Amino acid sequence: xxxxxxxxxxxxxxxxxxxxxxxxxxxxxxxxxxxxxxxxxxxxxxxxxxxxxxxxxxxxxxxxxxxxxxxxxxxxxxxxxxxxxxxxxxxxxxxxxxxxxxxxxxxxxxxxxxxxxxxxxxxxxxxxxxxxxxxxxxxxxxxxxxxxxxxxxxxxxxxxxxxxxxxxxxxxxxxxx
Length: 177
Known about the structure:
Helix content is 31%, strand content 28%. The chain is an alpha+beta fold.
Protein backbone atom coordinates (compact mmCIF):
# COMPACT_ATOMS: atom_id res chain seq x y z
CA UNK A 1 0.00 0.00 0.00
CA UNK A 2 1.42 3.35 -1.03
CA UNK A 3 1.58 5.95 1.72
CA UNK A 4 3.43 9.23 1.97
CA UNK A 5 3.96 11.07 5.24
CA UNK A 6 4.59 14.81 5.29
CA UNK A 7 5.07 16.86 8.46
CA UNK A 8 1.30 17.29 8.88
CA UNK A 9 -0.36 14.89 6.44
CA UNK A 10 -0.77 11.27 5.46
CA UNK A 11 -1.35 10.63 1.76
CA UNK A 12 -2.82 7.17 1.31
CA UNK A 13 -5.11 4.97 -0.75
CA UNK A 14 -8.87 5.23 -0.26
CA UNK A 15 -11.02 3.17 2.07
CA UNK A 16 -14.78 2.95 2.51
CA UNK A 17 -14.71 5.14 5.63
CA UNK A 18 -13.59 8.09 3.45
CA UNK A 19 -16.81 8.27 1.45
CA UNK A 20 -18.97 10.38 3.83
CA UNK A 21 -16.22 12.97 4.42
CA UNK A 22 -15.40 13.30 0.72
CA UNK A 23 -19.09 13.50 -0.12
CA UNK A 24 -19.38 16.43 2.32
CA UNK A 25 -16.45 18.16 0.59
CA UNK A 26 -17.96 17.51 -2.86
CA UNK A 27 -21.35 18.88 -1.72
CA UNK A 28 -19.87 22.33 -1.00
CA UNK A 29 -20.49 24.75 -3.90
CA UNK A 30 -17.43 26.83 -2.92
CA UNK A 31 -15.18 23.77 -3.15
CA UNK A 32 -16.62 22.65 -6.48
CA UNK A 33 -16.74 26.12 -8.05
CA UNK A 34 -13.61 25.58 -10.19
CA UNK A 35 -14.20 21.88 -10.96
CA UNK A 36 -15.91 20.70 -14.15
CA UNK A 37 -19.09 22.71 -14.64
CA UNK A 38 -19.08 23.82 -11.00
CA UNK A 39 -21.79 21.40 -9.91
CA UNK A 40 -21.68 19.71 -6.54
CA UNK A 41 -21.54 15.91 -6.37
CA UNK A 42 -23.81 13.66 -4.32
CA UNK A 43 -22.86 10.53 -2.37
CA UNK A 44 -23.25 8.18 -5.35
CA UNK A 45 -21.20 10.43 -7.66
CA UNK A 46 -18.51 10.69 -4.99
CA UNK A 47 -18.43 6.89 -4.63
CA UNK A 48 -18.01 6.66 -8.43
CA UNK A 49 -15.09 9.12 -8.25
CA UNK A 50 -13.30 7.06 -5.60
CA UNK A 51 -13.89 3.88 -7.61
CA UNK A 52 -12.38 5.48 -10.75
CA UNK A 53 -9.39 6.74 -8.77
CA UNK A 54 -8.74 3.32 -7.28
CA UNK A 55 -8.97 1.77 -10.76
CA UNK A 56 -6.37 4.26 -11.99
CA UNK A 57 -4.08 3.20 -9.14
CA UNK A 58 -4.46 -0.42 -10.24
CA UNK A 59 -3.97 0.34 -13.95
CA UNK A 60 -1.31 3.08 -13.87
CA UNK A 61 0.55 2.56 -10.60
CA UNK A 62 -0.41 6.05 -9.46
CA UNK A 63 -3.58 7.95 -8.67
CA UNK A 64 -5.26 10.38 -6.34
CA UNK A 65 -4.39 10.00 -2.66
CA UNK A 66 -6.75 10.54 0.23
CA UNK A 67 -5.23 13.37 2.29
CA UNK A 68 -5.58 12.81 6.02
CA UNK A 69 -4.49 15.18 8.80
CA UNK A 70 -1.96 13.40 10.98
CA UNK A 71 -3.06 15.18 14.14
CA UNK A 72 -6.77 14.43 13.97
CA UNK A 73 -7.22 11.70 11.35
CA UNK A 74 -9.69 13.93 9.48
CA UNK A 75 -9.99 13.55 5.72
CA UNK A 76 -8.97 16.92 4.26
CA UNK A 77 -9.57 15.95 0.62
CA UNK A 78 -7.33 14.55 -2.10
CA UNK A 79 -4.19 15.19 -4.08
CA UNK A 80 -2.22 13.10 -6.50
CA UNK A 81 -1.77 12.11 -10.10
CA UNK A 82 -4.16 11.39 -12.93
CA UNK A 83 -4.20 11.01 -16.70
CA UNK A 84 -6.09 14.04 -18.12
CA UNK A 85 -8.18 11.98 -20.53
CA UNK A 86 -10.77 14.77 -20.84
CA UNK A 87 -8.08 16.88 -22.55
CA UNK A 88 -6.88 14.66 -25.42
CA UNK A 89 -4.68 17.44 -26.84
CA UNK A 90 -2.43 17.07 -23.77
CA UNK A 91 -2.00 13.30 -24.03
CA UNK A 92 0.10 11.41 -23.35
CA UNK A 93 0.52 13.14 -20.01
CA UNK A 94 0.18 12.84 -16.28
CA UNK A 95 -1.24 15.74 -14.27
CA UNK A 96 -1.32 16.61 -10.61
CA UNK A 97 -4.56 17.64 -8.93
CA UNK A 98 -6.06 18.42 -5.55
CA UNK A 99 -9.32 19.27 -3.82
CA UNK A 100 -9.60 20.11 -0.13
CA UNK A 101 -12.54 20.88 2.09
CA UNK A 102 -13.06 24.58 2.71
CA UNK A 103 -12.14 24.31 6.40
CA UNK A 104 -8.65 23.19 5.30
CA UNK A 105 -7.99 26.12 2.94
CA UNK A 106 -5.35 28.75 3.63
CA UNK A 107 -3.21 26.55 5.86
CA UNK A 108 -0.69 25.28 3.31
CA UNK A 109 -2.12 21.76 3.19
CA UNK A 110 -2.73 21.80 -0.59
CA UNK A 111 0.85 22.90 -1.29
CA UNK A 112 2.29 20.40 1.19
CA UNK A 113 0.29 17.51 -0.27
CA UNK A 114 0.87 18.53 -3.89
CA UNK A 115 4.61 18.86 -3.31
CA UNK A 116 4.70 15.33 -1.88
CA UNK A 117 2.68 14.05 -4.86
CA UNK A 118 5.01 15.75 -7.32
CA UNK A 119 8.03 14.24 -5.60
CA UNK A 120 6.31 10.82 -5.75
CA UNK A 121 5.70 11.28 -9.50
CA UNK A 122 9.21 12.34 -10.42
CA UNK A 123 11.27 10.30 -7.97
CA UNK A 124 9.24 7.21 -7.04
CA UNK A 125 7.26 6.62 -10.24
CA UNK A 126 10.01 7.77 -12.58
CA UNK A 127 7.89 10.21 -14.57
CA UNK A 128 9.97 12.80 -16.37
CA UNK A 129 7.21 15.40 -16.75
CA UNK A 130 4.05 16.38 -14.85
CA UNK A 131 1.32 18.87 -15.78
CA UNK A 132 -1.07 20.94 -13.70
CA UNK A 133 -4.32 22.13 -15.25
CA UNK A 134 -6.44 24.80 -13.56
CA UNK A 135 -9.27 27.03 -14.67
CA UNK A 136 -8.19 30.53 -15.51
CA UNK A 137 -9.24 32.67 -12.54
CA UNK A 138 -8.72 29.98 -9.90
CA UNK A 139 -6.12 31.95 -7.99
CA UNK A 140 -5.84 29.48 -5.10
CA UNK A 141 -4.81 26.68 -7.48
CA UNK A 142 -2.55 29.05 -9.42
CA UNK A 143 -0.78 29.83 -6.13
CA UNK A 144 -0.18 26.12 -5.42
CA UNK A 145 1.10 25.65 -8.98
CA UNK A 146 3.57 28.53 -8.51
CA UNK A 147 4.78 27.02 -5.22
CA UNK A 148 5.45 23.75 -7.06
CA UNK A 149 7.76 25.60 -9.44
CA UNK A 150 5.71 24.75 -12.50
CA UNK A 151 6.06 26.87 -15.63
CA UNK A 152 3.18 28.14 -17.75
CA UNK A 153 2.87 26.10 -20.92
CA UNK A 154 -0.33 27.24 -22.63
CA UNK A 155 -3.97 28.19 -22.26
CA UNK A 156 -6.54 25.90 -23.79
CA UNK A 157 -10.31 25.50 -23.76
CA UNK A 158 -12.07 22.75 -21.83
CA UNK A 159 -13.83 20.79 -24.60
CA UNK A 160 -16.74 19.86 -22.31
CA UNK A 161 -17.53 23.15 -20.58
CA UNK A 162 -15.84 25.87 -22.65
CA UNK A 163 -13.76 27.25 -19.74
CA UNK A 164 -10.27 28.56 -20.31
CA UNK A 165 -7.69 26.27 -18.71
CA UNK A 166 -4.13 27.23 -17.83
CA UNK A 167 -1.69 24.37 -18.37
CA UNK A 168 1.59 24.35 -16.45
CA UNK A 169 4.39 21.81 -16.43
CA UNK A 170 7.58 20.76 -14.75
CA UNK A 171 10.07 18.13 -15.75
CA UNK A 172 12.64 16.21 -13.79
CA UNK A 173 15.46 18.51 -14.89
CA UNK A 174 13.58 21.54 -13.47
CA UNK A 175 12.47 19.93 -10.23
CA UNK A 176 14.29 21.30 -7.20
CA UNK A 177 12.83 18.83 -4.67
